[in-house]
Design brief:
transferase, Rossmann fold, alpha/beta, about 25% helix, globular, methyltransferase, Methyltransf_Superfamily, binds S-adenosylmethionine, single chain, 9 strands, methyltransferase activity
Length: about 230
Amino acid sequence: MDATQGRRHTADAGGQGTADADAEQFWERHYGTRRAWDAHVNPLLAETAAPLCPGVALDLGCGPGGDTIWLAQQGWHVTAVDISTTAVERVRDRARDLGIAGRVVTEQHDLASSFPAGQFDLVSAQYFHTPFAFPRGRVLRTAAHALRPDGLLLIVDHGSTAPWSWNQDPDIHYPTPTEIAAELDLDPEHWSVLRAEMPGRQATGPAGETATVIDNVLLVQRRDRSMAA
Ligand SMILES: C[S@@+](CC[C@H](N)C(=O)[O-])C[C@H]1O[C@@H](n2cnc3c(N)ncnc32)[C@H](O)[C@@H]1O
């Protein structure tokens, strides 16, 4: 993957990248037509990161940026990445409005073709789903390789369909944490699975309705110091 092709959104940087036009348009429409921009940290990320000493984090598919903003507010330096230019621009603007712009860099990437440069203490992939063909296993494996020694990769996926979800495909299969770990295909000599669980939680839909939904959670730690770049 080419780390140079993303479009960086800071006060002082610009550039052009390539992206799958359909996927980019889809997610641009998704965020461009979104009036409410309410974004909160995922509790599973907060639970994982709260005990850690703040370092350098990467938020893959940051979307509205609730996770990025929360991490930056805890003292982390965060690179927030999304295929949607609207999403990353809004995260950048929100960070600026909150006075934490110095700890947030936003970059537009189609992660199928480019990946941000750097080494990270924490990589977070929260509900990193897309309806388009996407080499997710390869991207997440690249993320695992971008970890510093002792760094953590937290993947939180949907494990069930909420009644208000835009995707009600009855045949949808949500990969289990074990299946996600198998897709990553990481050498157990160098990466450890710290958590592979499917907890339920009470979720609230856009109209205030509630339902129990499942999250598929995988937490991986890089162990091998000799492999770090
Ligand atoms: C289901 S949303 C989750 C957003 C956010 N992480 C959250 O928890 O609310 C999936 C996110 O992945 C982004 N995404 C989809 N395909 C992508 C790609 N090829 N490269 C980078 N980001 C992508 C979307 O724009 C979207 O923001």
